[in-house]
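Box 3.1 A note on notation
Throughout this textbook, protein chains are presented in two layers. The first layer is the amino acid sequence; the second is a token string describing backbone geometry. Keep the layers aligned when reading.
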Amino acid sequence: MNAQTRRSLIEGPAGAIEVAIDAAQGLRRGVAVISHPHPLFGGSLDNKVVQTLARAFSQCGWDSVRYNFRGVGASQGVHDEGRGELLDLLALIEQLQPDGALALAGFSFGAFVTSLALAPLLERRPIDKLVLVGTAASRFAVATIPPASHERTLVIHGEADDTVPLSAVMDWARPQSLPVMVLPGTGHFFHGQLPLLKSLVVRHLSA
């Protein structure tokens, strides 16, 4: 992402997990772990939306941690349809052992995996901020967000998303009374709208 990005490997359930960390700017608030889109369709920690999320978190005082799911880049293992990827995410958080606040974010398939991590994590610690972008609700069984976490959660979706229709996200959100922020005329990858995406996430993190 920039010259200060630190890349390393940590041990995960299927072997090494490739990690990229961008340090917090200004007063450090905690650690944000950001999950990327589907590994079988080119998703990686270098995805533009994932990098945009990392920039927003770093700007707001979070150490931004991007990582490659198993089988992507230098991460070992093979794609496991979300099951093993959840274990990767939980293992990464355990290895990082964030001593301050913890935030989670995910894009598309990464939002699905992030949703699965909420329940086991909330049994042990609070999640300070949650950001779900392009949530893949038409393709996977995205977990519900506990009501107590709603005020800390930002869900963003493009009105013109033809990969994950907005209607699928609304069908997921409606029973939960979970608000969804819709970007008019925007597709799944937020082409031309990444600065707006970043500003909306910054606003949420600053609230």
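The chain has one domain: 6-206. The chain has a mean pLDDT of 96.
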